[in-house]
Amino acid sequence: MRGVAPLSDTVELQARALAFRDARTLRFDGADSASDGQDASIRFIGRGDWQFDALAYVQARNFSNVVISSTRFVRVLDQRNTPSTGIGGKFELRPPVGDDHTLRVGIDYRRADGELQEEAYSAFSGNLTERRRAGGANTNLGFFVEDDWQVDVLTLNGGLRADRTRIAQGFFRAVDASGGLASETIATDRSDWTLSWRAGAAYRASEALTLRAAAYTGLRLPTLNELYRPFVVFPVETQANAELENEKLRGFEIGLALNPSDGINLSLTAFDNRVGNAIANVTLEPNLRQRRNLPAIDAQGIEASINARLGQFRVDGSLAFTDATIDGRGASLALDGNRPPQTPRWAASATVNWSPKPGWDLALNLRHAGAQYEDDQQTDRLESATTLNLFGQIALTEKLKLVVRGENLTDEPIATRNSGGAIDLGVPRTVWAGFRYGF
User: Fold this and answer.
1) At 277, is the secondary structure helix, strand, or coil?
2) pTM score, two decimals?
3) 87 in helix, strand or coil?
4) Which CATH number covers residue 244?
5) Which residues partner with 288 through β-bridges?
């Protein structure tokens, strides 16, 4: 549900609430999985001389999952409760500094906390073998300033951001069936300041051509899963790592936007990025991996897109080539030059949309993802896949619409995991149908 209400001529209140639940059985009888969530947010927008945007939100999530042995077909793990909560907000102010400038000054805050509660069972006796608990809290407080400066046909952009990140309350604890302590990790609380920036320019060379360039830095905190949650996809165990450091990005890009005629837009971008302290699942032994910081992952590539509107038809296409490699040193020297797991070189998408009359929307989409590797050793390969998808929306009345959606209509096998030849498949041919009512 979403509601919008004007508080004055220049101030608007927006409120939003969302709830969902999904339950399904995966692979085997008894392998029941469920996820649910609730979101709420409130936002104030000011459109006067001193424009502002104030946002506050809360998100609650939970997940449960029963793992069934693929050889004995009995319960071996019950991830019965995985609650997590995210809260945050933002305040952004746009002072009136002249028509040539758009200045933004603000602060934002995010906090995520969560906990894992699971029990392991013997595949032979069915008895409880271990109870596990894990969790922690991550916070990020950011201060930012950004300005767009219009100088005739040249637009300059610059931004500066300071982030205070904190990783705290982290733990992992496992006890045996009798309650005796089997394993415990109490992580040290830690915090840090990081300064990041962005600079860019766009030059309108003609009515049809715009040239652009940008350079930037950024960061990403490790997730609570990466820090504290180990998992097993038999026979491979992946350990968490409470000592993971923040990923840090630096990169640049250049590109152009071409508008040769009304309704046709072309875009081409080349980029070069380097992610320091990149987090990956690193193989320690044949059946043992651990989340670790790699020295870096380097990625260079080209992205192209086209958007064209021709009467009742619209065509959208994109093509991406990414040459990504691991920069391995010291303990990770053996990985040097390997591709990061689950990173295809080629990805492409094409969509043809037809709107024969108001309220009707029919679209056919073709999507391709190139071959990639499941692991850092480049031994388990995920083959390329091309899928055909369909979307249809037909107006039955002014407010009531029939919606039909089809995914992977050709039933292409999509490998999402390959662990020594044990393969999981993605969505098979699937069709949804429903109704949408708007008021």
Assistant:
1) coil
2) 0.87
3) strand
4) 2.40.170.20
5) 237, 285
Asked whether 222 and 140 are in contact (CB, 8 A), the reply is no
Report DSSP letters for 33-69, one per residue. EEEEEEEEEEEEEE-SSSEEEEEEEEEEEEEEEEEE-
Question: Digits of tens for pLDDT over the chain (439 positions)?
Answer: 999 999 999 999 999 999 999 999 988 899 999 999 999 999 999 999 999 999 999 999 999 999 998 889 999 999 999 999 999 999 999 999 988 999 999 999 999 999 999 999 999 999 999 999 999 999 999 999 999 999 999 999 999 999 999 999 999 999 999 999 999 999 999 999 999 999 999 999 999 999 999 999 999 999 999 999 988 877 788 999 999 999 999 999 999 999 999 899 999 999 999 999 999 989 888 889 999 999 999 999 999 999 999 999 999 999 999 999 999 888 788 899 999 999 999 999 999 999 999 889 999 999 999 999 988 889 889 999 999 999 999 999 988 999 999 999 999 999 988 877 778 888 899 999 999 997 6
Alpha-helical regions (H) of 97-159: none
Please state whether beta strands 400-407 and 430-437 pair in parallel, antiparallel, or not at all (unpaired).
antiparallel
Q: What residues does 76 pair with on adjacent strands?
A: none
CA distance 110 to 137: 11
277 and 184 share one domain: yes
Are residues 265 and 351 located together in one domain of the fold?
no
E strand or H helix at 224: helix 224-228
In a domain, 331, yes or no: no
Do residues 69 and 99 both lie within one domain? yes
Same domain membership, residue 265 and residue 321: no
Give the span between the Cα atoms of 68 and 234, in whole angstroms.
11
256-270 CB burial, b ≥16 within 10 A, e <16: bbebeeeeebbbebb
Return the SS3 of 331.
helix
- Same domain for 170 and 136: yes
CA distance 340 to 283: 13
User: Which residues, listed in sequence order, are joined to residue 239 by a DSSP beta bridge?
Assistant: 290
Residues in CB range of 173: below 8 A, 6 or more apart: 132, 133, 134, 181, 183, 184, 185
Beta strands in 153-243 (DSSP E): 154-176, 181-186, 190-204, 209-220, 231-233, 236-239
353 token code pair? 């949309």
**In a domain? residue 219:** yes
- Are 254 and 213 in contact by the 8 Å Cβ rule? The answer is yes
> How many folded domains does the chain comprise?
2
CA–CA dist 374, 392 (Å, integer):
34
